[in-house]
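Course exercise 7: structure representation. Students receive a sequence record and must write out the corresponding structure in token form. The form below is the worked example handed out in class, using Polyhydroxyalkanoate synthase (362 residues). Read each field label carefully; the graders check that inputs and outputs are placed in the correct fields and that the protein name is recorded exactly as given.

STUDENT ID: A-19
EXERCISE PROTEIN: Polyhydroxyalkanoate synthase
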Amino acid sequence: MIEDTPQRTFAPLHAALLTVDHQRRWLAGICDALGFGPRCSPYEHLQTAAGATVRRYAGAAADGPAVLLVPAPIKTPDIWDLDPTASVVQRHLEAGFRVYMVEWPDATGTDAPLGLQDYADRMLGACVDAVRQDTGEDRLLLSGHSLGGTLAALFAAGHPELVRGLVVLGAPLHFAPQTGALARVVASYSDTPADAGEGGVIPGSMLNLIGVTASPETFVYQRVTDWLSSLGHPDRLRSHLLVERWTLGESAMPRQLFSDLVTILYRQDGFLTRRVTIGGRAVGPADIRAPVGCVLNRQCEIASPASVLPALDALGTDDRALFWYEDEPGVSLQHVGMMVGASAHRDLWPSVLSWMRERSHA
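STUDENT ANSWER:
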């Protein structure tokens, strides 16, 4: 805990923010009616026995390498596939990959106390097995954004025999207070959302509030300035509004998962200190044997270089690559700019996909 920091509590906010979640989803429906909803690529579902499902995207080359995309279990996975012009899914398909994506279960639809091991091991493992069975491949490429990248890295550390390569996109791996805005704000609370209120979930709007508290620059000021800079540029403005619509798609988080994230990852810096158990054993960065590609934004306060580079230095592989993404207009939130930005799709993704392709048959 950071000394001399005022201690705050979440409890009074819990019930009110459940109502806010419903209101934001209603606004999302209005945005959809106005033409700002996601235009996702065609897919069908592969079922697993663990609660999560897998999207299998149409249009893939029959013999292309398989990649499993791992979104964060926050909001919807559509940030990977908002629009044909801003679709990481489409860029993978165009590059010849067979594309699959994890679809996490609705946390409000289960009473099970789903925690970090359920997401990073049991459910993600079931998704990996489903793709392996569907493709006949022994090992897969994993690619994850934000918390999805963190979960993918934990799985790669616990099951190196199943991972051919790993791409982490704006995903923190080191969680000490000095590494970023979220780590600092977590340290300033006397409890966690998991200690507040009733029920088995944390409202999505509470996660938004934590983000705004941690970094108003990221979650408030940048969004306003991005909107202003996009006026007069129809393509930028549409991209901005697509992301804003995506932010309204609230998805509650299981109470146990949030408690584990705060307690194990953030307060114990659990990945670097080997306090995370995956595959029945304690794991850290040194257990990742697959090639690792990492996309970072120097200005990002959510997944800062300081929250990633120490883990990269501790990897169990020398085959690693850094790709730098620079802020650009028309993305609303710079944390997701690498997923939707025009310059990201023009300049960044061809390099990342070429790197992945070179390692797809290793």
